Amino acid sequence: MSKNIMHSRHDEYHKLTRGERIGYGMGDFAQNLVFGTIGGFLALHMLTVNTISTTTAGFIFLFVRIINVFWDPMVGTYVDKRTSKAGKYRPWLLRAGVPLVILSALLFAPIPGVKGSVAFAFIIYLALDLVYSLVNIPYGSLNASLTRDPESIDKLTSTRMMLANSANLLVYTLFPMFVQMAAPKDRSLKDTGFFGLELNLGNYTDPSANYAWFGVYAIYMIIGAVALFICYKFTKERVVATAEQTANVKTTDLFHELRHNRPLVILGMFFMLAYTFMFFMNTVNGFFNQFVVGHSEWMGAVGLVASIPGIAFPVFWPKLKKIFGKKGFFHLFLAMFIVGELLTYA
């Protein structure tokens, strides 16, 4: 018995291999590919191609966000209280991953009879967001269950950020360019901003571009599904709470913790503001380039400039943490984030 306990403790401090780190990071890659495209381009598609009014689209997004406030703690509690032979968290990558991909594709599907349908857009987007929580929350918990080894955790963070930003490169750089290349209306030779590269691009905000949107997004969803499967295949849970430890976990625990844990509240407020600004910029970017700058063909070049630092910098994160410390490291990149946001719309 004692040997089993010692082996279990040793296993908890497992040194993650490069393959394991990449395997887990493919989960970030998949989610950014699937949901990053939704966050960055669904509003543009909904208002222009799908011809839903701005007020209605805004209400749909707001209502679903409010539902998330109550839904996410319930998902966390449900997942914590259940386990299977495949693990506590890993199975959700497939259980909810497949519906996630299908629902995402349906939002862009050119289905006769539902174009401009508020009810269809609302139901599918609500279902998608609920299912996304069933992937994202267990995936976040899976991170902590892989190992307790500090060095492996630092390397894992760098790896997953590189893969997440690689997906952002595909989303914000290549996705709008691919859709414009497939869009049938108002086609002409345009300068993409990629070092003089000119391509024959169409108007991707015209309703006639619906098949172009769906075709490109369907390919992205296939890649995302494969990435989720790789994540499932190459990860192993080693640090998992027992049934006794999770027996008393309740949905209300989070709200109780927020009342008594001031550092958690501060951290939560930071993430709320950071993600608000990030999603605002990602969502508005398409409209900004199309209707303010007047050059939608530059979307790819702008996305490339924004994505490169996110892919290159994580390699240096472990060393920078040692130089500045965790708090100094946080302040450094927070300052860079704020300056970048201000310069974007200056």
UniProtKB/TrEMBL annotation:
GO cellular component terms, semicolon-separated: plasma membrane
Short name of any one Pfam family annotated for the protein: MFS_2
Signal sequence region: none
Chain segments annotated as transmembrane: 21-46, 52-71, 92-111, 117-142, 163-183, 211-232, 264-286, 298-317, 329-345
Keyword tags: Membrane, Transmembrane, Transmembrane helix
GO MF annotation: an example: symporter activity
GO terms, biological process: carbohydrate transport
Domain of life: Bacteria
Coiled coil (UniProt feature): none
Family: Belongs to the sodium:galactoside symporter (TC 2.A.2) family.
Protein name: MFS transporter
Organism: Klebsiella variicola
